[in-house]
């Protein structure tokens, strides 16, 4: 017999082709109506309502089945289509029933319990929709970057040193040598600038954060890009603005149903305001009568208030904070030639939370070595990274966007674990 159809295939069938079709799927829900039962199949593209005669034995929920039958229009069914089942073949039945109702819209579980039974929870429509949106965003980012002549790269995740400094490095033993898990692809993406001009990578990075918070993971997906021959870091800001806009356009065009179901408010972006670090700090200190406690960085509470201020006064869900102090930025950040206490770097805040860090990098060898020394680093330990500067590099810069944080703000979740399929935190290594 013919191949199994997907939902989009069924919707395209002409009336006379709907008589005898075949579909596979997982039995998501069964509603017993007395003489007959509704069987809802969970499929890659969504859910399909089927009608089954109760003369037959009902399958168990979460059975894998192939059904054969007739498709017809039914306004009240999801997708406007229903299948009258003539034959059902059960390919496999579950050994045990899932101990909670996954077909409910909201699974109200404590986050720790939810993460423990994540393999089952992800079968829930709301949960799986979150990651459908994530997949669509990544697809749109990737397509946008390809269109703008970026080359996709795949860099090592086992490295000899941390790229971002600080104490949050996972150390490991590598055949008698000391190694660590990559904190970011920073050195490699810069190294590839003289090779390809523009590069990007979307992949996991590792941070040994010792504290459990609602915005930190120990492994997260970083969307990194790096571009050569820039005039200033505003080229990077503009590229990111357009990349985010293209992802939102893609969601609006392709994910209308899911957006509605998850109640996602997609921001409208024309341009994103920028404000200097120092000014942003002063703005919140004044508006919310706060004392500036930490002059070199933004506290999470300050980020939240800056977010509120820009939504309230400028109607913008996003704001770029620029010119961060040199003291708190990594050694590869270019200092501002007008005032070297600050750097040509930025963060992007989305609804009051940092989702991106980026900036222009040092491309001159002597300047880079001098800054390393100023930060008490040994240039000899960065020999392979410094080949970039030694052998010649154009002015360049880039950014890293934390995908789970971006998703967290987009869907308005309370905890970053909700936007990671299988989160890694200080206590969780399974599933
Ligand atoms: P940074 O260390 O600021 O910069 O990280 C970039 C972005 O990654 C996200 N992020 C995290 N998300 C979840 N859990 C964490 N523990 C975590 N830490 C960071 C944030 C942050 O804005 N190499 C530079 C980027 C660059 O300049 O190109 C870097 O990694 O959203």
Describe, in plain words, how this protein is organized in 3D:
By secondary structure, the chain is of the alpha+beta class. The protein has two domains: 7-92, OB fold (Dihydrolipoamide Acetyltransferase, E2P); 125-419, Bira Bifunctional Protein, Domain 2 (BirA Bifunctional Protein, domain 2, 2-Layer Sandwich). The chain contains 13 helices and 18 strands. The chain has helices at 7-11, 111-116, 118-121, 125-147, 186-191, 193-196, 234-254, 256-261, 277-287, 300-314, 365-374, 383-390, 403-411, and strands at 21-32, 36-43, 46-53, 64-73, 81-92, 151-152, 158-159, 171-174, 177-181, 198-206, 219-228, 274-276, 318-322, 335-336, 339-343, 345-350, 353-360, 396-402. A hairpin with a 2-residue loop joins strand 8 (171-174) and strand 9 (177-181). The protein is elongated, with a radius of gyration of 26 Å. It starts with 6 loop residues before the first helix and ends in a 20-residue tail after the last helix. The structure holds aspartyl-adenosine-5'-monophosphate (AMO).
List keywords for this structure.
single chain; 431 residues; alpha+beta; OB fold (Dihydrolipoamide Acetyltransferase, E2P); BirA Bifunctional Protein, domain 2; eight-stranded mixed sheet; five-stranded mixed β-barrel; 18 strands; 30% helix; binds aspartyl-adenosine-5'-monophosphate
Topology (SSEs and partners):
Layout (H helix, E strand, L loop, with lengths): L6 H5 L9 E12 L3 E8 L2 E8 L10 E10 L7 E12 L18 H6 L1 H4 L3 H23 L3 E2 L5 E2 L11 E4 L2 E5 L4 H6 L1 H4 L1 E9 L12 E10 L5 H21 L1 H6 L12 E3 H11 L12 H15 L3 E5 L12 E2 L2 E5 L1 E6 L2 E8 L4 H10 L8 H8 L5 E7 H9 L20
Parallel strand pairs: 3-5, 6-10, 12-13
Antiparallel strand pairs: 1-2, 1-4, 2-3, 4-5, 7-9, 8-9, 10-11, 11-18, 13-16, 14-15, 16-17, 17-18
